Amino acid sequence: MARRCRHRELVPLAALISKELKGEKIERPCVRFGSAAQSRKGEDYFLVKTDCQRVHGNPNSTFSVFAVFDGHNGNAAAIFTRENLLSHVLGAIPRGISRDEWLQALPRALVAGFVKTDKEFQSRGETSGTTATFVIVDGWTITVASVGDSRCILDSQGGVVSLLTVDHRLEENAEERERVKASGGEVGRLSIVGGAEIGPLRCWPGGLCLSRSIGDMDVGEFIVPVPYVKQVKLSSAGGRLIIASDGIWDALPSEMAAKSCRGLPAELAAVQVVKEALRTRGLKDDTTCIVVDVIPPDNLVVTPPSSPKKMSKFKSFFRRRSRDSASKLTKKLSSVGIVEEIFEEGSAMLSERLGNESSSSVHTSAGLFMCAICQMDLAPSEGISVHAGSIFSTSSKPWEGPFLCASCRNKKDAMEGKRPSGFKGL
């Protein structure tokens, strides 16, 4: 084959690139979505944007964004986050890089974008807050970033339901309780007359039930906007994402939500999930749901199959094996492929989440003199390494990037308990 290729006529580079782009387009899945919502307090918002482009003007670089924002103490933070988070995330990704490098840069850019959005909103002096579950679908790769207790689940074509987020509720997350207390917050229930304690665990001051959110400047900087990030690659069989606020998840377990809408197209599936949640619990909270189907391009009419009659418990999150009927399940999974986990990180420490500039495989033309959070240009003498003075540092060299401006460094220190609660370095 190689010998015959030498005798072929030369093909213009532009033609080769065109063929590659056409091939990539054929291999990319189709994305179908639907949304539904019922409002009680008017604090839930969502974002759907299916025409984003990694390379401006190149339709073959299209990716989609889906997000749910569940506000509290007003809707200002949810609205601000919906309008600004995407641009802040994209602004933190280096220009002129390949698709693989772009996907690799996403987790760090999501951390920077969440923190920048929180920093800008708090500078407005408003006290509301919001959860954020932010999903990027690029081909078969799904990247999810989240703070709070909105949730994203994946229902694979094999009928396996996987959680792509972590709930940041103090009542249920012991690790977050310890982090908040170590940073200077107090965790306890609401006390009423007579000394009785009621309700879920909350963080004081402020009384917030969540350990991570965007906004909430009156609660304390130990309630951080640093998201849990998970990135997975679907098999060529595709899958279904269900992204929803806690109005859904307080009423339905993940498996029940997935099962309730199997066999329906995405637009009807979202309606069905909301309907099932209201039937189970009633309209006690804002209830919002987005269903996203990632579909093989040669099978556009296929919807997620009906739930298997019997599914055994699985040992691990993605590469699961049945305890019984192993041969049958193995055969079924081999026909649909296995979800590949690419990246997962939930640390609240910015020095861990922003990484080490010198060890990053993605090189930026901006160099070392730009704030990794707010993207502000810095003079060589202005930048402060994210690792400087940190006992959690992954580097013993404080002169290594990424670097922060003084304002973002103050915010980082406050979030990590190195400054008194209530310090405003914005």
TrEMBL record:
Provide the PPM-type phosphatase domain boundaries: 25-294
InterPro entries, A to Z: PP2C, PPM-type-like_dom_sf, PPM-type_phosphatase-like_dom
Q: One Pfam family, short name please?
A: PP2C
Q: Which PROSITE patterns match?
A: PPM_2 (PS51746)
Substrates-to-products reaction catalysed: O-phospho-L-threonyl-[protein] + H2O = L-threonyl-[protein] + phosphate; O-phospho-L-seryl-[protein] + H2O = L-seryl-[protein] + phosphate
A GO MF label: metal ion binding
On the tree of life, the source organism's domain of life is: Eukaryota
The record's annotation in CDD domains points to:
PP2Cc
Arranged from A to Z, the UniProt key words for this protein are: Hydrolase, Magnesium, Manganese, Metal-binding, Protein phosphatase
List the cofactors.
Answer: Mn(2+); Mg(2+)
UniProt-listed Enzyme Commission number(s): 3.1.3.16
Does the record carry Hydrolase as a key word? yes
Which family is this protein grouped under?
Answer: Belongs to the PP2C family.
The protein's name in its UniProt record: protein-serine/threonine phosphatase
Which species is the source of this protein?
Asparagus officinalis
Question: Where is the organism placed in the taxonomic lineage, from the top?
Answer: Eukaryota, Viridiplantae, Streptophyta, Embryophyta, Tracheophyta
